[in-house]
Amino acid sequence: MKVGTMLQDIVSSLFHRPVTEQYPFEKRPAPPRTRGMLHWNPEKCTGCCLCNSDCPANAIELITIDKKAKQFVMRYHPDHCTFCGQCVESCRFGCIEMSSEEWELAATTKEPFTVTYGRDEDIEALLAKRAAGDAEPADES
Ligand code: SF4
Ligand code: SF4
């Protein structure tokens, strides 16, 4: 770089705001198609298990409490997830979506990396079975 050009850049930088973004103190909205945290809605779930059988990363478990009564619980492991979106594609009932807003998922403990989704009563039924010493209902994939 020529000295003249360099001086020109230095002088110009004195009068312009830095282009560096002060992340994480200042955040831009993520693009709408960002693939972030997965969310599951149990209301239309049939327990077909296509979502977890198609997941290449073993990031989701579909736990059947009572198939006839359509009681299921999903356990999601964001630390395994590759955010490929395959589970969203595979679910024919639109039960799974990926948040474009929750994408900062780093944590210093393991707890946030096991997420349990389901109706409150189904999660309670699962916990009660576990407390009673029953083997956890099988993942039917
Ligand atoms: S986004 Fe991909 S890796 Fe993550 S749970 Fe779905 S299928 Fe598995
Ligand atoms: S693919 Fe959809 S309907 Fe089938 S088990 Fe997964 S969430 Fe339920």
Please supply descriptive tags for the structure shown above.
141 residues, alpha+beta, Alpha-Beta Plaits, two-stranded antiparallel sheet, binds iron/sulfur cluster
Distance between the termini: 62 Å
SSE string, helix = H, strand = E?
A: HEHEEHEEH
Protein structure class:
alpha+beta
As laid out across the biggest beta sheet, the strand order is 2-3-5
Please report which band the strand proportion falls in: under 5%, 5-15%, 15-25%, 25-35%, 35-45% or over 45%. Answer: 15-25%
Query: What does the largest sheet look like?
Result: 3 strands, antiparallel
Oligomer: single chain
CATH architecture annotation: 2-Layer Sandwich
Q: Which runs of at least 5 residues are low in confidence (pLDDT < 50)?
A: none
Q: Which molecules are bound in this entry?
A: iron/sulfur cluster
Can you tell me the CATH class?
Alpha Beta
Shape: elongated
Write down the CATH topology.
Alpha-Beta Plaits
Please report the total strand number as a whole number: 5
The count of helical stretches stands at 4
Instruction: Give the C-alpha Rg.
Output: 23 Å
How many structural domains can be distinguished in the coordinates?
Answer: 1
The overall pLDDT, averaged over residues, is 91
Helical amount among residues, as a percent range?
A: 10-25%
